[in-house]
From TrEMBL:
<dbReference type="InterPro" id="IPR025948">
    <property type="entry name" value="HTH-like_dom"/>
</dbReference>
<dbReference type="InterPro" id="IPR050900">
    <property type="entry name" value="Transposase_IS3/IS150/IS904"/>
</dbReference>
<protein>
    <recommendedName>
        <fullName>HTH-like domain-containing protein</fullName>
    </recommendedName>
</protein>
<feature type="domain" description="HTH-like">
    <location>
        <begin position="55"/>
        <end position="110"/>
    </location>
</feature>
<dbReference type="Pfam" id="PF13276">
    <property type="entry name" value="HTH_21"/>
</dbReference>
Amino acid sequence: MTETDPAAVAEFIGNQRTDHRIPYRLACGVLGVSESWFYKWRDRPTTAREVRRGQLSDAIRQIFEGSGGTYGSPKVWLVLVREGWRVSVNTVARLMAGLGLAGRKIRRRRGLTRRGRRPAFPDFVRRDFTADTPDQVWCGDMTEITTGEGKVYL
């Protein structure tokens, strides 16, 4: 019983009787728990901690869905703290994992320039782009412009 939540096991045993008409005694025997243990957990009132965790889970789900599924646990935690919740980042991360919520990974924009891949061209003007007369020094630059139809290079 140390690996699973005792309340979940008690709920499972109770559901077996209602769903499949399996007596409590048989279900407890198969799972290796005593009937007295089952009745203790079945009749136990919901604790304030469980109620708070349920409310916190609802708030986490609402914030996550409100962000379009993009927020991860640190951002959800920040919003919760701003709303007045007293909770740790690790608790939020654990609850989000339990709910199956994971934020989107940020994709970093990759530039066109890759250092060290090609040899550099010789610098004939030695970084001096001033000219006395027109048509003496030519230089250029490549700029990437994102448009609605795709990328344009200028």
